[in-house]
Amino acid sequence: MKHFHFFLMIIGVLSYGWSENTWAQTNKDIAIILKSKGEVKFRKEKGKDWRAGRPGTRLDSGDVLKTAENSLAAIMFTDDKSLLKMRDNATLAIRGKRVDNSIAKRIVCNLGEFWLKATNQHVKLLVETPSGVAAVKGTEFYGVVDAEGNTQIIVIEGSVQLMNKLGELLIQAGQTGKLTKNGAPAVFDTDPNSVLNWANEGQGRNELKFEFQDSNGNKKSLKLLYR
Amino acid sequence: MKIHQSWFGLAFFFFSMNILWGEYWPMGQAKAQSLSGIIHFPVKTATEGEAIRVEARLEDPNLQVQYFRLYYRQKGQPNFQHEDMTEQASSFFAEIPAGEVKSPGVEYFIMAVLNNQTLITNPPSNPYYAPHEIIVNPASSSSGQLRPSTEEKPNQVTSPVVAGANEVGDIVILSPEPNETVASDEVVIAASLLGGSKRINLRSVKIYLDNQAITSHAEITSHVISCVPKNLAPGVHRVKLTMKDKKGRPLDAIEWQFSVYSKEQPISRKNRSGFSGRIYAEWKNERISDSSLVNQNIGGNIRGNFGPIEYRAMAYYTSRENPKFQPRNRLLLEAGTSWIGVKFGDTTPRLNELMLWGSRVRGIEAYLKLGFFNVEFAQGQLQRPIEGQPMIAIATDSTRWVHPLSGDTVQSTTGIYRYGTYDRNLLALRASFGGGKYFQLGWNLVKVKDDPQSIQYSAQPKDNIVVGTDLLLALDDHRIELKGSAALSLLANDISNGAISKAELDSTFGEIPFDPSQFEKYFVLNTSLIPVDPSQLTSLAYQASFKFNYFGHTINAMYKTVGPEYNALANNYLRKDIRGFSIYDRVRLLSNQLLLNLGYEQYQEGCSYQDDGEPTTAPTDFSAFNLGISVFPRAKYWPKLTFNWKNYVRDNGLDTLTSANAINYQNKDIAVQVMYDFQLLDLKHNFSISYITADRSDGFKRLRNGMANDIQMIAWRTNFQIPLTTVISYATNQSTAGGGLSDFKYRMFGITGDYRLLNHQLIVKAEWNTTSAIGAMTTDQDSLGNPLPHPVSSDYTDYRRNAVTIGAEYQPNKYHSLLLDLSFIDFNDKITGHFRDRIFWLRYELRYQR
Known about the structure:
A: mainly beta, 1 helix, B: globular
């Protein structure tokens, strides 16, 4: 019996190690830094050392990123190319769990501004802030989290569901949702004068893409570059 | 790199069939038609926007050729353009330019003029009215051209976007996006493996940037492949990922390109200078049938822009340049913007389809296009003077001469054995109103004149003037288009004695206040004028065409009339004395997976015979109906099918009892081609089989006028797990004519193997092919035309040809390539003899792009 228990323990340890390794492998490389301007740093979830987040740096689930003054980081998720941009003086963590060919994503932002474009509305993507959670559904939006933890979500395209313990709300493109620690989610029409656009800044160019059919029925695309 | 010795040994014993027919077997090519003396594999299908390579050779390789030309036109166009074919090892090559390969199709024929002035064509019979037809498929459908993926040169960007999931399932390009433009310091190359990671052998993954392996600098894990290249130069860059599965089988490569810009450089095209170019040098040493020929060619082209000005230069120099022939060297310099420009050198102006359309002019061409008013101008030399060859005079008899070749004494009025060509010069002017987007009305003048003093031994120098007009109306981005043009010509067929004198003019037409000699520098008026009476409009040509492109239909309809005395020396290949119409419809169904081509033509040639009062001549009616079906399913592993049927009739209504000129022919052409991609024994294969039959029967049952041609072709290409590609080809052709009086059989078998080394920088190849041909003629007359008691058959050709080629092409990077080919040919002809021929070919090319 002793031997049997010992044998079971060995099996258990090995299984745990295998599953940990599998889990570790599964949740690695969930995102990659495509662009970094200024000072961008990251650290592992349980680590203490901050390392430079340079273009090409791979991010695992749990990694934390922060940007300094006049800095910007662009991160792409490796399953569906959803894009996340962090503005200066922002801190957030990314989490993800691979499910088949997708990654169920969770972005935890405690401070700062970010922009998110989720390309696949069928893949789970949550944004956690101190004042609530935004469930993203195939959308583009800006998020602003202030020092008190209050959150504004400005939806550019698609829809976002805001939730906290006091309620939930669906906000659409052209609307701004507000989350506070002590209040239910609120929505109002976005003030056109305060629409954020920094996600396109600093690129040196903007791009317009058109798709059309030529006279033979072939689909072609035309890309216009402008400043 | 490991080389599997067993495979290498096998590859060593694989030889080629494609010394004559290229490195790969182009899909859509059928097999040789040879009855006329030209062996040619008709091309049957092509892809829009891709140049079509045409190859041919003479049945009798010992014949000497003056020129070999390819004539082509888009279906629905009235006139053919031509390209001189380049000779290599008894074969002739030319390309139909990519810009001319447009849906619904292209028509072409080949013509050769031998040194003995014999003219032969392919198709052998009435090629102008029954040319070869190529079905042109839209670029989005699968190509009819066989292009093994391993043959693609790594540094040649053949498609602007190649990206996305491959057969492994979900390899996603993360960055840069295909065709994206990124700053030089922001380049991150990344791809996500997703579900494919379970099947991929990660150790086999290789990544290339601009054909350079960068795998050692990349990070490859089970989920992501990434690499951050530094200091990328501005311009276009290409990424390629190759990998294998866990069984060692190669998987589809992923390729895409992106552009890099430097942040110091503004992106405005106005201020950006781009430049690309290539130069090449080649040396060929051929020993064919005991004759040696060493040939050196140098050529190149550059293209670029400096702000809004675009420039281009092209040059080609060959050691085969010979003042006894028209120029083979080429030189062209051009610069301009969208509204003003000039070209110097060998240009091909296109002003009007009836007057000047693509003939080579060595001189100057210029344009000014303001939109509401436009002017185009061309001046230069159409033909250079080439002296003729006289016969040897007999002092005692001025009407008899000694032929310089045969030594026979012959009678001649000119004493010229071979007529030369005069220096022929052109002046063309076009003024038009309207930019052409919706409307354009043009007025054209083309003047062509020979210089009688340029050579001594020739006859009938000419002077030609053509005036014309054209109109274009277009709607909805040219989806609806109506075009019309008309031209009137005057030709002085012999200006050797200059203009008619006023006295002679007055004696013929009465007192006329006009002295032709005063206007001689503008036009030489004399009794050789064609037509004598322009008011009869026998020298008028006009045509109208209509295009309609909606609802999946592309309809082209055209009517044209060319008078019997219409002469445009700058457009010499325009058929005269015809009228008729044609209509074509190309129908696109099932998202371009099914294409139908329907066409009908009806023409009358020799219209002037209608009223000539001769009972033995009459116009010939030509009518043709054409049906083509192409199936290109997008689903993988479904076969692709092309079927074409054409029925055409020529009949002049005469009877053989009353006229020796009676014509009544019926022709039926059928072509079927099946192409299939499949996997077998873990290898990727491409298999194609073609069958073409062409029959002509005589309505009067005159067996001598019948012709039949049957062609079969099979090609099997295999991509192995190692970087080896093989092609096995087999073809037969049987032609009969004259009710069996002429019979030709042709067979070809060949094997080709390519092996890639050094990360695809080096391609070594080995080829072997064997061809055999037997041609027999039966005659029932002797050489003097006297009937023989029994028909006598004799072979005019009976040969077997074995050829082995080994070669290599080395491309260390996107700038340089070096090619070496060695061919050894054993040619055994029972009639002309046994020869061991060889061809050495060395070529270096330098490319640059900024």
